[in-house]
Amino acid sequence: MKALLDSAALVVTAAGLLAGLGAFLASRSPTAGLGVFLEMALAAGLLRLAADPSPRRAATAAGLLVVRRLLLLGLRVRQPAGILDTGAGASTSKS
Q1: Measured between alpha carbons, how far is 24 from 28 in angstroms, rounded to an integer?
Q2: CA of 65: how far to CAs of 35, 62, 83, 91, in Å?
Q3: Would you kindly state where each structural domain of the chain is located, as residue ranges?
Q4: Cα angle 55, 33, 48; round to 5
Q5: 94 φ, ψ (degrees, to nearest 5)
Q6: Which DSSP string do the residues of the chain spell out, in sequence order?
Q7: Can you tell me the distance from the alpha carbon of 50 to that of 87, in angstroms, rounded to the nearest whole number?
Q8: How far is residue 75's CA from residue 33's CA, in Å, rounded to a whole number?
Q9: Is the dihedral of CA 14, 29, 69, 66 positive or negative?
Q10: Is 73's pLDDT higher than 60?
Q11: pLDDT band for position 82 (cuts 50, 70, 90)
């Protein structure tokens, strides 16, 4: 069971890298890309913790959670107000 969970954690990590890159490319927002990657990295860390519930792995998962929160909070604070506004509601046609 440990090998299966470790393999699943590796797959989730790889999927997180691809999903984070996709979110960044689609939105052009580092916050979105990093947020997706960090969510998947946390999921992988929890899978590893389930495979081998040791204090070291628990500390790693907790540390990743803290880093995730601090990074995303820092990016949101420094982000300009209109960065996510794509102008979807604005009319671009000239009458």
Answers
A1: 5
A2: 12, 5, 26, 41
A3: 2-78
A4: 20
A5: -105, 130
A6: -HHHHHHHHHHHHHHHHHHHHHHHHHH--HHHHHHHHHHHHHHHHHHHHHHS--HHHHHHHHHHHHHHHHHHHHHHHHS-TTTT---TTS-----
A7: 44
A8: 11
A9: positive
A10: yes
A11: low
Q: Are 12 and 61 in contact (CB under 8 A)?
A: no
CA distances from 53 to 25, 46, 95 (A): 36, 9, 65
The model's pLDDT over 11-54, given as tens digits with 9 standing for 90+, comes to: 999 999 999 999 999 998 888 888 899 889 889 988 988 888 88
Place of tokens 């299966």: 4
Q: What type of residue sits at position 58?
A: A
Residues in the chain: 95
Instruction: Please classify residue 94 by burial: count the beta carbons closer than 10 Å to its beta carbon, then call 0-12 exposed, 13-18 middle and 19+ buried.
Output: exposed
Please check whether residue 83 is in contact with residue 29, taking contact to mean a CB–CB distance below 8 angstroms.
Answer: yes
